[in-house]
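Person: I have long wanted to understand how a fold can be written as tokens. Underneath my words sits a plain record pairing an amino acid chain with its backbone structure tokens. Those tokens are not coordinates but codes from a learned vocabulary of shapes. I should like you to check that the lines agree and flag anything odd. The protein I mean follows directly.
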Amino acid sequence: MKLNQPKIIVLSLGGSLIIPKTGFDLEFLKGFKKLILKFLKNNYRFIIVCGGGQTARSYQQIAKDLGDLAVEDIDWIGIHATRLNAHFLRSIFRKFSHPVVIKDPTKKIKWTEDVLIAAGWKPGFSTDFDAVKLAELYKATTVINLSNIEYVYDKDPKKFADAKRQEQMSWSEYRKMVGNVWSPGANWPFDPVASREAQKNKLKVIVMEGTNLVEVEKAILEQEFKGTTLS
């Protein structure tokens, strides 16, 4: 049964899923495309914000190794990596997507297609922040953050054996853990500056492992899923 009004889903798609360290995962990309097209047939629309992932971090690290760089330059390297990933993804959804990749999440456009692809905006802001701003702009209530982690933990599980996974966290709890400062190439479950904006606008963010498409489908359908809800 179709919805009366199209439901807009905002996906913040980590660059590590678009192109992992080991190279493109064709099976994941096929599965992701199939999942999105399945929902399009049922009156859903998608805003997909592409991260830079390992592509961005590799360029940033080599640039740092070659000499002192301004923070702004490091940031721009990451932004252009997100734009490369976004143009790649837009080509995958060419038949269904708005023809231009969105680079300014504060500027509302006339969007009539089923899919809107977005990338990095400007220095000082992550693609998580862009996803939050686009959710605000188009009246979505939830951002689903697809990354390579299944849950948010109360501390770094790579450093602390007693780290506990969190299925629900308040924004206050989460922000106390990650702080308020964002830096280019950082790898938080969800960016601190974006978190502040999401909390201010009472937006819900789901953090989950994006390669588990069965669970992603459940999250889109608002069923019980594996992941962490920040609200």
